[in-house]
Amino acid sequence: MFKRNDTVRIAQNLFHEEGSRSFVGETGTVNTAKPDGVTIAGLDGPDSTQTYWFSSDEVEKA
User: Fold this and answer.
1) What's the pLDDT tens digit per position in 10-52?
2) Which CATH class for the 7-61 domain?
3) Beta strands in 1-62 (DSSP E)
4) Which domain of life is it from (predicted)?
């Protein structure tokens, strides 16, 4: 399980929609962590506070 401030990489995007950003290969920082997934900040740039949710199966430690 991940914890707040862990640096993670998006390994896969199971819920990617055609024509939208996939995030695969990008790294960010865990903002909140729950058993079913995490919210990740920093995907839009190092100072970005925008968060995105990914299931735990989609991310790996960077």
Assistant:
1) 999 999 999 999 999 999 999 999 999 999 999 999 889 899 9
2) mainly beta
3) 7-10, 27-34, 37-41, 51-55, 59-61
4) Bacteria
